[in-house]
Amino acid sequence: MAKTSSVEKNNRRRKLVDQFAAKRKALKDIVMDQSKPMDERFRAQLKLSALPRNSAKSRIRNRCEVTGRPRAFYRKLKLSRIALRDLGNNGQIPGLVKSSW
């Protein structure tokens, strides 16, 4: 199991991303629009940099839903390799068969 504080910190980041998503997108559109005047784009860039760092989507870490493990994460299942193996061995994931040769 991962530290509870790490998992909670990641959850707080997810909430911040959801909260600031619209504002961040609007500012990014202004910054990237070449037809706008340079000073307007610069002001938008300053406002964007004034937003909390944890409101950026790239700050979110993919973690296992079961254990909170940050590495060896399968995006499609939202599980780590270890949790996937345990649940698969218990027969709790439909269609997953343990291979043997």
TrEMBL record:
PROSITE patterns in the cross-refs: RIBOSOMAL_S14
Subunit structure: Part of the 30S ribosomal subunit. Contacts proteins S3 and S10.
Keyword hit for ATP-binding: no
Role: Binds 16S rRNA, required for the assembly of 30S particles and may also be responsible for determining the conformation of the 16S rRNA at the A site.
GO biological process: one example: translation
Keywords carried by this UniProt record: Ribonucleoprotein, Ribosomal protein, RNA-binding, rRNA-binding
Listed name of the protein: Small ribosomal subunit protein uS14
GO cellular component, one term: cytoplasm
GO molecular function: rRNA binding; structural constituent of ribosome
Family statement: Belongs to the universal ribosomal protein uS14 family.
HAMAP family linked: Ribosomal_uS14_1
Keyword Transferase assigned: no
Organism for this UniProt entry: Manganibacter manganicus
Alphabetized NCBIfam families for the sequence: PRK08881.1
